[in-house]
Design brief:
This protein has about 270 residues and is of the alpha/beta class. The protein folds into two domains: about 160 residues, Rossmann fold, CATH 3.40.50.1970; about 100 residues, Dehydroquinate synthase-like - alpha domain (Dehydroquinate synthase-like, alpha domain, Up-down Bundle). It is built from ten helices and nine strands. It has a seven-stranded mixed β-sheet with strand order 1-2-9-6-5-3-4, sandwiched between helices. Strands 7-8 form a two-stranded antiparallel ribbon. Helix 4 packs parallel to helix 5, helix 5 runs antiparallel to helix 6 and helix 8 packs across helix 9. The chain is globular and about 55 Å long. The chain binds nicotinamide-adenine-dinucleotide. The site of nicotinamide-adenine-dinucleotide has 30 residues, from helix 3, helix 4, strand 8, helix 5 and helix 9.
């Protein structure tokens, strides 16, 4: 399935297909070099498979995993490696990983030489259903999440649901929380569908496809988050606070889930006095 995000000259496709990471060779034909960023927790196999498609033109940069590394130091190291490898605007940058890799790599792509082509290969459920599309990039700074960043759309998003086979149950639940946010705000049918709690691979693919369609339709209406896109921050204000205060002991999706429960409760104070 391919979903088109219509944003005038920044339009792009989101491809959702099992084993898509092995079939992206023609994407790279027009580039001299393909700079791939991944993290130490993403199975190496995935960046290697994307690199193989690049026919010897790939350079792989591995950052340390974890939200605490979505910062200026890692950004500087990524930019430094891009420079050392002689990247120019005739080249491209790819993120192969979850939302952390996606956010920081897209940010680097948006500022390097005032913008170099960027492709996103999300490998967590959370990044598939939410963070890989929409163009929000960034890093955390001064204990504030995503406070430094840009809006920068990818050239294409390639979602390969088969890579979820190596993702932990806990991380899958984080992704389901962001999909549930999409359903709770914009699609009661998806919300009902998700209420059953456990899903086959086919059902999971349906959740990914529907979430991506919902996000696309919202981003097309309000790309810079001036109005309706703010709804997608449901649960995030409280969630970000918990995430920062907990020094990453809880994952992003878990914090958003707690935030949504608090916002939906008629007596949210009960949640915070326990
Ligand atoms: N840009 C946006 O619109 C947007 C939206 C929502 C969230 N976010 C950001 O996304 C981030 C959270 O993303 P996340 O939940 O993907 O976390 P993450 O990127 O930290 O990934 C979670 C963990 O899973 C590992 N991993 C990734 N893919 C794997 C795979 N296929 N198999 C096994 N392990 C794998 C990673 O190494 C990491 O340790 C936060 O920084 C949040 O702010 C951004």
């Amino acid at each position: 399935m391919t979903i088109r995000v219509n944003l005038a000259e920044s339009s792009y496709d989101i491809q959702i297909e099992n084993n898509a990471i092995d079939r992206c060779g023609n994407l790279f034909d027009k580039y001299n070099k393909v700079f791939i960023v991944t993290d130490s927790g993403v199975p190496k196999e995935y960046s290697e498979r994307v690199a193989k498609s690049a026919n010897g033109k790939a350079v792989v940069f591995v950052m340390k995993r974890g939200e605490e590394n979505k910062n200026f130091v890692t950004l500087m190291n990524i930019c430094n490696d891009m420079l050392t490898n002689g990247l120019t605007r005739k080249d491209c940058v790819c993120a192969v990983g979850g939302g952390v890799v996606g956010d920081i790599t897209a940010f680097a792509a948006s500022i390097y030489m005032r913008g170099i082509d960027f492709y996103n290969f999300p490998t967590t459920l959370l990044s598939m259903v939410d963070s890989s599309s929409g163009g929000k990039t960034g890093i955390d700074f001064g204990n504030v999440k995503n406070v430094i960043g840009t809006f920068y759309q990818p050239k294409k998003v390639i979602i390969d649901p088969s890579v979820l086979k190596t993702l932990s149950e806990r991380q899958v639940r984080c992704g389901l929380a962001e999909a549930l946010k999409m359903a709770a705000t914009f699609d009661s049918k998806l919300f009902d569908f998700m209420s059953k709690g456990s899903f086959t691979d086919g059902e999971m693919q349906h959740i990914i496809e529907r979430s991506v369609e919902l996000k696309k339709s919202i981003v097309e209406k309000d790309v810079k988050e001036k109005s309706i896109r703010k709804s997608l921050n449901f649960g995030h204000t409280i969630g970000h606070g918990i995430e920062v205060a907990g020094k990453e002991s809880r994952y992003h999706g878990e914090c958003v889930a707690i935030g949504m429960v608090a916002m939906s409760s008629s007596d949210s104070s009960a949640l915070f006095t326990r």
